[in-house]
Amino acid sequence: MVLMRCVVCGVGNRLRGDDAVGPVVVEKLRERFSSSDDLLFIDCGSAPENFLSKIKKFGPSKVVVVDAVELGRDAGAVEVVDTSRIKGFLHSTHQLPLSLFVGYLEKGGRCKIVFVGVQPKAVGFGVALSRECEGAIDRAVEVVSLMIE
Predict the structure, then answer these.
(1) Fewer CB within 10 Å, N or C, the chain?
(2) Which CATH number is 136's domain given?
(3) Backbone angles phi, psi at 64, to 5 degrees
(4) Residue 72 has what DSSP assignment?
């Protein structure tokens, strides 16, 4: 049972190997959770800023962002990351820095922002999702599920 309005944003490019983890996590969460007026799952692709008005209109109390980011850990590691650390993440597959997207959401303090990062192994064009990140998808789904149940 969901006790808050929550948006889950999967960020990443499905054509760039492990960068696909965010959108794939959102896809699996949609399958797991029945339709609810209090949950919104968005595959943001590599341009999450294009969904800011949709998120704002939904009026969430929490936004969970899932993305493949350099955490300095082994490939496939899943970590809940403090949003202040996002400023240091460089990710060439996004049109704008993720820090601007998160900063806009945090502006005004209307909702809590939670960032779930997955350590990628390879994010080149045409590269398949690594075995490590395939395993991380289910772990990330579990982490996010606990946040929204």
Answers:
(1) N
(2) 3.40.50.1450
(3) -110, 125
(4) S
